[in-house]
Design goal:
By secondary structure, the chain is mainly beta. Helix content is about 5%, strand content about 55%. Strands 3-2-1-4-5 form a 5-stranded antiparallel sheet.
Length: about 80
C-alpha cells in the first residue's frame, strides 16, 4: 500500500493493565479504492512495532510517499520510501 506520511508519534508507556507499549504510530493519507463513499483521500493512524519503526528513518519521509507492507493478519511487516 502506498500512502503519504503525514506525522509520527513515538509511544513508550505502560497501560493500566500493566502492558508495556513500545512503538510508533504513523499518520498517513491514502487513496481508498475499497470505499466508494470517500471523495479524495482517507486518513488513519497505524501502529508500528519498534523494530519496524527503527528500520527506516521516518522523519526523513514526512510529506513523502511510503510503501507499507502488511502480513495476512493486517500487521505492518515492512515500511520503505517510494523513489
Amino acid at each position: 500500500m502506498q500512502a503519504k506520511l503525514l506525522g509520527i508519534q513515538v509511544m513508550d508507556f505502560t497501560t493500566k493493565t500493566n502492558d508495556h507499549i513500545d512503538g510508533t504510530r504513523i499518520f498517513i493519507a491514502y487513496k481508498d479504492l475499497e470505499n466508494e463513499n470517500v471523495i479524495g483521500t482517507s486518513c488513519c493512524g497505524i501502529f508500528l512495532p519498534r523494530r519496524i519503526a527503527d528500520s527506516v528513518k521516518l522523519i526523513d519521509f514526512i510529506s513523502k510517499t511510503i510503501e507499507i507492507a502488511f502480513n495476512m493478519k493486517g500487521k505492518v511487516v515492512a515500511i520503505s520510501p517510494v523513489a
